[in-house]
Design goal:
By secondary structure, this protein is an alpha+beta fold. The protein has 1 helix and 9 strands, in the order H-E-E-E-E-E-E-E-E-E. The radius of gyration is 20 Å and the shape is elongated.
Amino acid sequence: MVEILVTLSITAVLASVSLPPLTNLIESSQADSEAADFFTSLLLARSDSATRNNMVTLCKINPTVPTSCDNTESWQSGWISFEDTDADGVKDAGEEVINTFTGMSRNASVTTVNYTNVISFLPSGGITTNGSINICVNGNFANTIFINATGRPRVASSTCP
């Protein structure tokens, strides 16, 4: 009986010591995954704009109505990319939805610079406005996606705002 109690005590101590690093690993992986999803959608939109020789725009959506833009939502709710044939940054009737990305997890937050509601890629693959997207998980781990004038996104580790 004493040996079982000693074994349980040692197991409890080891578990309490290893739990914080495990939580950090999970949150760090989640931040990487959320950034990879957004990064992939940007690459696809850039590629589609050049392939279609037309502007392609990403906009925020309401997850319950994923076929139109909703500026009252946040980027973590989800987004669509669509062929913006009239280049106005608004999803109009008849404009094709190319991809839909359902939102991020509840503990993720997104802050942007110059991308309040839309991100638009020109037919050349360039972007209408330089900016960045910061994706933060639980206020601890973050990645920032920077988009330059050529439309090429890049990801870097960063801090939460």
